[in-house]
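Figure 6 in text form: structure in, sequence out.
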């Protein structure tokens, strides 16, 4: 039975004028309407400081949907927009929240059963004010089913995370807070868990006795997309590693269990087992880079420091690679290399596993590899080898591959996660402990990357990575399997 929203709800979006709202959230809500997953009665109320009225806001919402949902159907869109409203106000203004409350009461009149969702699509420093105003204005009372959805990153390090957490918990109950990492809404990412669970053959291969090393690559060809204000203070390491890459690591290494209600605990346990390799120099643990001018998809693009809003001498990283180990016995001693970068040759997210060469086999042989490709040309690719004809043991690659595209009830990640929040399903949202554990692990790395004397290597936009990362990996006597 496909998941849908069973009863009326009001969805309040703070930061309604923003990039994320237009890129992901309006398209996700519309997709639910288009796929008939929404009830007859629902409201979407955008709240932000930008000057707009209902009409101009509806135009903005419609434009984002036409741009990002290829199958946008005009009659469904017209009906969808009748549920959409806008309220302009300061996040600090109690009066604006009181007015929002009055508007909600009018919009919800006659509803027998209802649920209220708020979505914080604003910088974390505004969360506290909004939360307090939601309480004071009685939009949140604790009596009506309520979800507060918070976009990652929650904080920018362990300390700021603790602050945000305390502020949220002052206003809402822990079970009403949904920390969202949109990777956990992606079918391809969830499938990592199910591929292991449903394929004992594959699961048995994931063992330190068989594995030489693992690479997890999140390569993007896009740059910072007018988000310099956010990115300058964040950088790729903070943006990608603390949440997305940690979640992939957790799903890959955690203990499996048939009860999906324990997913968060098992992910948390896997995160707790991660550690940075002991070394005398943090430069052995992490390496960072920044893109310069280059060509991506045949188009000339500026270097990071030439992007609008970026300081001419910015030291923000747009690429990072990290070595990690886990104490889990099945992975003991297996090095994990995590890397992510912007403005690379192509978009691709994959897990690449190189197996041990247990004994020399002959001419042309290469170690077995398994690639689980999550985005880009999604697929699974197992590289074996087979003998060439002739008396000598010489080999050629034997590649088994299948496109791992979603088949069935496929929804965009934010659509899926919104429905799960409505159903109070929290397993594919982050727990506070998971976020806390990730920050605790990565804070020392961030501190190191922020030091002036830590090298920041350059790479041309459209290239595969800073060249220095090859030597960095070669210290472990190996080379990149991919890119
Ligand atoms: P934006 O910078 O576009 O901000 C969203 C809205 O918040 C703006 O339209 C603005 O609305 C308001 N805002 C911005 N800065 C401030 C400020 N300093 N004080 C008060 N209000 C402010 O962010 P995004 O939409 O890109 O992202 C929203 C959140 O989601 C952020 O926390 C971001 O880190 C996170 N995120 C974003 C992703 C993306 O792809 N964009 C991906 C993953 C996470 P107004 O001025 O009208 O009030």
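Output sequence:
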């Amino acid at each position: 039975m496909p998941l849908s929203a069973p009863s009326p709800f009001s969805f309040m979006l703070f930061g309604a004028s923003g990039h994320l709202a237009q890129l992901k959230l309006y398209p996700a809500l519309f997709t639910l309407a288009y796929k008939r997953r929404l009830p007859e009665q629902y409201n979407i109320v955008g709240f932000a400081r930008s000057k707009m009225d209902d009409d101009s806001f509806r135009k903005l919402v419609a434009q984002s949907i036409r741009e990002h949902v290829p199958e946008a159907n005009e009659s469904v869109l017209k009906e969808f927009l009748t549920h959409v409203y806008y309220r302009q106000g300061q996040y600090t203004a109690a009066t604006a929240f009181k007015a929002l409350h009055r508007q909600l009461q009018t919009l919800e009149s006659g509803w027998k059963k209802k649920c209220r969702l708020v979505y914080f699509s604003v910088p974390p420093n505004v969360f506290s004010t909004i939360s307090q105003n939601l309480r004071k204005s009685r939009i949140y009372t604790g009596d009506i089913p309520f979800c507060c959805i918070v976009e990652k990153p929650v904080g920018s390090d362990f300390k700021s995370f603790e602050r945000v957490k305390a502020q949220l918990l002052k206003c809402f109950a822990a079970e009403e807070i949904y920390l969202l990492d949109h990777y956990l809404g992606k079918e391809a990412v969830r499938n990592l868990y199910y591929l292991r669970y449903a394929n004992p053959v594959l699961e048995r291969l994931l063992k330190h006795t068989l594995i030489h090393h693992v690479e997890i690559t999140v390569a993007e060809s896009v740059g910072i997309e007018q988000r310099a204000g956010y990115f300058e203070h964040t950088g790729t390491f903070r943006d990608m590693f603390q949440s997305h890459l940690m979640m992939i690591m957790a799903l890959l290494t955690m203990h499996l269990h048939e009860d999906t209600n324990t997913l968060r605990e098992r992910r948390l346990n896997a995160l707790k087992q991660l550690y940075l390799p002991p070394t005398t120099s943090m430069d052995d643990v992490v390496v960072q880079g920044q893109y310069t001018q280059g060509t991506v998809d045949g188009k000339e693009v500026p270097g990071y420091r030439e992007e609008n809003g970026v300081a001419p001498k910015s030291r923000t990283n747009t690429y990072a690679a990290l070595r990690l180990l886990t104490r889990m016995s099945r992975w003991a001693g297996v090095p994990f290399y995590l890397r992510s970068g912007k403005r690379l040759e192509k978009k691709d997210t994959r897990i690449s596993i190189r197996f041990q060469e247990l004994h020399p086999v002959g001419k042309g042989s290469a170690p077995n590899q398994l690639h689980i490709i999550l985005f880009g040309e999604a697929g699974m690719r197992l590289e074996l080898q087979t003998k060439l004809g002739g008396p000598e043991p010489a080999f050629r690659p034997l590649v088994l591959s299948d496109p791992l595209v979603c088949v069935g009830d496929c929804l965009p990640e934010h659509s899926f996660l919104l429905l799960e929040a409505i159903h109070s399903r929290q397993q594919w949202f982050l727990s506070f402990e998971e976020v806390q554990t990730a920050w605790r692990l990565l804070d020392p790395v961030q501190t190191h990357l922020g030091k002036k004397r830590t090298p920041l290597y350059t790479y041309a936009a459209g290239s595969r990575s800073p060249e220095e990362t090859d030597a960095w990996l070669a210290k472990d006597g190996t080379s990149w399997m991919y890119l």
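Caption detail: The mean pLDDT is 95.
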